[in-house]
Recover the amino acids of this structure.
């Protein structure tokens, strides 16, 4: 099923892929190879973060293969649900109870989001003129998104407070999550894997876009490109789509244009980045996912 869905997706988006591919043909192949390399290292960083969120040692080879396979599932479901489902099945297959597996996924999501925001804030503090963040969000949109987020939070809190069975479930989950988090941070190796990986992953993703931008001679300083990537992905997280397709792409183009790139060049860079980091590994990742499912690893 994942492979069939991938095939349909490729056919539907073929004109976009072809356009980006033509631009990449004339690009610097060494920088494109660097983009492919840091993309691969990104799965290693994710594996480190996943291991850091779990007390038990996980089989390194299967853990890495699962993260590669999860990247295919992540582009079929929004908000990281695909990767979360694959990793939940993997942790359950490793003998970790459902409550603790779910807590590990929540801790991973928290650490990954925190690492991305911290990295962005550090770079913005060092290069305050690199990007105008208000250009990423149209007038009034920021207030609307904040209002929607506040409404969702209030609704969840009201539901948890009013529904007793739900309150018990949430309390049990939080107890498990907090207990595991305290235990993990008492183990220096786990804490280093968790937070080191959560910082390394977005840094490697940003480095991938930087490499593609260099390959296409985008006239923007590399640090500004990295900041544009981090800012765009943080903003696009408010509009969850499968693999960030659409929301991240649009935010990236706007961010690069804001950083000083012409619209056509920024669009080519984003298309090239998507081909290298999403479309190129998509079919192999789907095949690996199929193998892992057949072998009952996930």
């Amino acid at each position: 099923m994942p492979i069939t869905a991938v095939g349909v997706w490729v056919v539907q988006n073929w004109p976009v892929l072809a356009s980006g591919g033509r631009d990449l043909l004339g690009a610097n192949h060494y920088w494109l190879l660097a983009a492919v390399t840091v993309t691969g290292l990104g799965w290693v960083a994710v594996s480190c973060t996943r291991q850091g969120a779990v007390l038990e040692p996980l089989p390194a080879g299967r853990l890495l293969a699962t993260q590669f396979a999860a990247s295919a599932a992540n582009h079929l479901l929004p908000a990281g649900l695909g990767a979360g489902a694959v990793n939940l099945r993997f942790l359950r297959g490793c003998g970790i109870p459902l409550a603790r597996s779910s807590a590990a996924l929540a801790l991973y999501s928290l650490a990954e989001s925190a690492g991305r925001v911290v990295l962005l804030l550090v770079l913005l503090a060092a290069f305050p003129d690199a990007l105008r963040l208000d250009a990423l969000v149209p007038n009034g949109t920021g207030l609307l998104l904040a209002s929607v987020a506040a409404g969702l939070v209030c609704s969840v809190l009201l539901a948890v407070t009013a529904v007793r069975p739900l309150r018990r479930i949430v309390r049990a989950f939080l107890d498990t999550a907090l207990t595991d988090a305290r235990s993990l941070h008492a183990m220096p190796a786990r804490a280093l894997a968790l937070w080191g990986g959560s910082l390394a992953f977005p840094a490697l993703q940003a480095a991938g876009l930087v490499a593609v931008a260099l390959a296409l001679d985008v006239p923007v300083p590399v640090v500004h490109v990295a900041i544009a990537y981090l800012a765009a992905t943080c903003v696009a997280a408010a509009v969850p789509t499968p693999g960030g397709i659409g929301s991240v792409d649009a935010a990236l183009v706007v961010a690069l244009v804001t950083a000083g790139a012409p619209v056509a060049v920024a669009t080519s860079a984003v298309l090239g980045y998507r081909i290298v980091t999403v479309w190129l590994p998509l079919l192999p990742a789907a095949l690996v996912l199929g193998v892992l499912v057949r072998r009952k690893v996930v």
Notes: The longest helix spans residues 263-294. Residues 5-10 have pLDDT under 50 and may be disordered. The chain has twelve helices and no strands. The two ends are 15 Å apart (CA to CA).
